[in-house]
Amino acid sequence: MLFVFIALCTIAAILWLSEPGSAVNRRLGALALSGGTGALAAVLDASWRSYAAEAGASESAQLALYKLQAFSSVFSYYGIPYFFILFAVAYRGVRLSRSVSIALPLVLLLPVILCVLFTPSYNETYPITFDIVVWWAVPYILLGTAFVLFKKVPPTIYARTHWVVCFAVLPPVLFVMFMNYVLPSMGMLRMWVYNTWIVGLGTIVFVLGLFTYGFMGIRILIDRKRFDFTLRAVTSGTAMLNHAIKNDAGKLRLFAEKMKRYAAETKQEELLADVEAVLAASRHMEEMVARVHRRTEDITLRLERADLAAVAEEALHALKPSLGSIALHTNLSRGWTGMIDRAQVSEAVTNIANNAIEAMGKEGSLFVSLTETKRELVLEIRDTGPGMDRSLRMQVFEPFYTTKRTGHNFGLGLPYAYHVMRKHKGSLTVRSKQGEGTTFYLAFPKKTLLAERGGE
């Protein structure tokens, strides 16, 4: 049980620290903590209180341990169904008015309050009155399970994270429902000792999900911080390098112009040709420096209300000459407007779509869609190209990383698009498998963009 206590408290801390403003994460973290306190009560009962007594601890210390055990046990029994139903409501995305969203937690807390006030107090045999608690705890858990299981998830990268949540959360909670409430109400006590294995399985799913598809957006947050740090380093480093190269290229151009005039005056044709080559090289250096600088400098947004579908269509229209035999399929939900930097978003879409076109070569299909979730507008760009293996997929947002060998590709298109999305408080994620194509998801938060649906 000590493992269960440590594992669940660690999960609660990860959920709370990853995104403190998320009601879903806060409530799921509270659910994990409730399970952890139950494990703590079991550890206190099985060993810690006995060790304290054998070590000659004072009566007050032993009483404090007993009270901690009582509180932990009762908090766990009442907290698991309560926090689970609250998590399920938030995760399902049930639309509630402000007054209802404030009142709902209080209404759902009523059975807990009534049980605390009007049922017998804690004892080690009957920590709660099982045959009463079961009548509200089980419905809470079953209703919450239905909310989570039948949540409508669009076919994006979030679909996989949804199933990670289902497999990590639902089996342990349903198992605990039988062991902690149903069977004890039938007289089969202390069945909670069998919870260790199922909670351990849920922990394994949580950890695996965290480092593969993500869990409640946490993996995205880890990647986001890493890429933000890399972009800041690249921005400051290239700014200094660009400045130095630009100054030297300017000096080179000035002296070459002077040499060109001298060569022309003295009619030295060979020298004149050499100087022209030097001037061309200096101009090329300045052009390359300017291009790198534009892609690595910090972006300043110029926000205006714009239709996301229209911006995507304009960007795709400009790429039509590059499509060749590639089929373009669009399914853009019209009417959604938001405060965005039209030019920057268009450039980000162009970079991603152009990468997809180059990856497919002469043939394939490019699918672009704009869908909505409760909190986000998701622009999906999918190709039928060769796809990427895991190692390549993990590096696509790294500045200057590129698989292209032409002299005009710096590996800055995707980092730039990522930076644009971060500036809009959104996210850019990728899903790809070798041989199965690649999909990019540009997720714009409705709240930040002040998004509105035309005609509503």
TrEMBL record:
SMART domains for this protein: HATPase_c
A Pfam match: HATPase_c
InterPro entries: HATPase_C_sf (IPR036890), HATPase_dom (IPR003594), His_kinase_dom (IPR005467), Sig_transdc_His_kin-like_C (IPR004358)
Membrane-spanning ranges: 75-94, 101-120, 132-150, 162-182, 194-222
Gene3D superfamilies: Histidine kinase-like ATPase, C-terminal domain (3.30.565.10)
UniProt EC number: 2.7.13.3
GO biological process, one term: phosphorelay signal transduction system
Catalytic activity: ATP + protein L-histidine = ADP + protein N-phospho-L-histidine
Residues in Histidine kinase domain copies: 240-448
This protein's UniProt keywords: ATP-binding, Kinase, Membrane, Nucleotide-binding, Phosphoprotein, Transferase, Transmembrane, Transmembrane helix, Two-component regulatory system
UniProt GO MF annotations: ATP binding; protein histidine kinase activity
Name listed for the protein in its UniProt record: histidine kinase
Organism: Paenibacillus nanensis
Species classification: Bacteria, Bacillati, Bacillota, Bacilli, Bacillales
